[in-house]
Every structure is written in C-alpha cells, then in structure tokens.
Amino acid sequence: MHNQNNLKNSIFEYRKHLEQIEQILDELFQHSEEGDILVVEGKRDIRSLKKLGIDGDIETVSNKSLLDFSENVAYTGKSVVILTDWDRRGEIVASKLSEYLQTMDADYDIEVREQLKSLVKKEIKDIESLYTYVVKLRSIAGSTSDFADIADEFEYYYHRSYR
Question: What is the pTM of this model?
Fold first, then answer.
C-alpha cells in the first residue's frame, strides 16, 4: 500500500510540474497572440516554440549586434519577451537585452523566462529542448485536464494511509 502511495505522489508531482509549465506556455501563447515579439537565440528555439503551438513574431538574436537588435525591436513599439536559454551565454544575452531595452524605455518582459527557468533548469538548459521535455512530461503525467482527478485520488490515498 505504501508503494502505491509513492507512485500516486510521483504522478501527482509530475502533473503539478506539467501544469505549472503549461501555465507559462499559455502566457507565452497570449503574448504571441497580442503581437508581442518573442526573442530567442536560434532557429531550433523557434521550431520548439512552434511545435508547442506558439507562433507569432519570434525573432532570433544569433549573429546580430545586441545593441542594433534592441534598437530595432524597441523601434517597433511592441512589447518584447526575452526568452533566451539559461546557460551561460543565454544569461549574458538576457542581461544585455534587458539593459539595452530598459535604456531605450522599451516595454519588455523577462519574468516569463525566469519562471520557466526556475521550473525546468534541473532538467533542460534551453528553449530548443522545451518541446521534447513537455512531450515527455505529458507521457508520464497524462493530460493536465485530468489534474483535478489525480488530485482527488491523491487526497483519498493520503488520508486513507495517514489515519
């Protein structure tokens, strides 16, 4: 019985983790729908986001001057979502973009990146791996639409075991 409880707990944790990631993906989808510019490092990052259903205006910073790039996106007047990787290079790029966009008084968001990073940094290090990671989580945890059911089931086993 105790082993079954551990299994339920781990499925519950996977589903909770997946739900948190999918909330961030929903937020990115909203940004995209509103016409905001999503900034990533490379073409593979774009492919990963598109596979997750996030289209819209996605720009890459690879092989470009960050200052010129920042000026160009700031000039559009659109809000910019910085979504660089959380490896060393990605951190530097995010920091520089934030600095430049702030100096240019542009509207930008780095919080979505920080939230995503805090959720997945132990498992993946970049946006390009996000699609594969989400698919893997979905296969382990099932659909998040079943989240309420598993939470109820978890409560049942939890209370039953610790009476």
Answer: 0.81
